[in-house]
Batch of 2 targets.
Target 1
Amino acid sequence: MIPEKDSESGATLVLVLLVLVALTLLALSGWYLTKTSVDIAGNIAYRNAALNIANVALEDAGNYINTIPMPPGLPSVQPSWFYNSSAPTASPISAITASSPQWSTAKTVSIPSALSNSLQDGSLQYFMEFLGNHACNAAGYVTNSTCYYYRVTVMATGARNTHVITQSVYRLVTAKQG
């Protein structure tokens, strides 16, 4: 006697393969989302490290401003990274990019060894602009004091080509406290 053929045509195998493909796609999408989240968190950490290290350049610029003989204003010998903008045009931070020409002459600041891991072979640069002097009535100072203004623009470059650009304005008052 000849045995009867089994009437199954592989439907179970096809169903199992479809479930395995769906599970593989689900696992790959979960891996991709996790990797993207880790990359975003890393980029935020690198940006914050670069932003925090920018304070080193601001301190260096402040120290330089304090060496300008009184009355301040333009130093007698201006470094290549010092610009006279006593009639400044609007130069908001949004107008300065990592490829702006000022960075070719910007001052490079050494990153303290205790902080060098924060930038992972990054760089720290700044340039300074003299914005002019104006009569001012600064709080706590003699009336009609003279205020001298300097704008410092700092760029910190870190890992993953992270660029952070920040600006700060310094005001020096040439009057005794009243």
Target 2
Amino acid sequence: MKLDYTIFESLHNPQGAKNTASWADVCRMLQDVPAFPSKAAQPLIKLGTFDNSSRGQGSSLTAISGVEIDYDAGNVTAHSAAKLLRQAGIECVICSTYTSRMDCPKWRVFAPTSRTLPAELRTYLVSALDGVLGNIAARESYTPKQTFFYGRNPDTSYVFLHLKGEFVDVALKDAANAAYLADKRAQRQREELAATTCLRAETQRNRKAAGRLVVGQVSPIDEFNNSHDVRSILKTHGYRESGKKFIAPTSQSGMAGVVILQGDDGRERAFSHHSNDPIADGLAHDAFDLFCILDHGGDEWAAIQAAAKLLTTAKGESLHSHNRNAYRQAQQAAKAQAALDKLKGVAV
């Protein structure tokens, strides 16, 4: 079986090189690695491929040919881990890391998949593999774009164990599927809640904005939503389309965590599952919301004013000018009415 993997010369160089080799060849490479003068001098490997072979900002993991587990706690030996993995019947390699010592074992697991898989499945396979080990994996094992050093420390003995068995996606299919389905259920629940909650939030926002309008004025919020779509706004702000989803420019995982939901009113709204995304606040956002958050830091009044200056009426007049004139006319009408009422002896 041939698998695609990526090698990076150093931690500081985000540009890697895609390679294709048999799993047996990868095993020999990990077994016969040279010694390096320091941890930082080692190359890094990823059992997968990236956009343009880069793990830099804005790139994402596109596919995987295996998963990696990192163990740093120093309490469980590589041989103890091998016993658990052998019992589970998993094909993999376990090798010690650069800072591993006899009294503080640290090691890494490389487990190939039976075929190239979508990158989004990696988390579930890592979770299933970590479950076999007793959930002891270092947190970075779950980071999709994480790459891993490989090499020998000339001052310590190098542990290399090659276990025979089934590919990780075959051996742990049931556990990975269970994790996948549970996560998808949780995502759907969050999205359903967001879709419901956003309508209440939009209603409150629109009522607040409507309270500022006088006769003859047009709502900049409604007009903005009628003339803009969420997909275009996301792209303008660096969100990258990935299938039916988007990847936030702030995403560290490189996974597509922004979904497009369609409400009962037929309008599309964006909902983000990313943890560090400015639009990830538990709500689904229409075009004006995105304009408010991404262009105006959440300042609703500033967004309304900016939208009014940006939009035009059918006569080519800016909405800002149209509403200003409508306001003046309403003020003049109110003064005229007040004068008329006064002449009639009506207390004002």
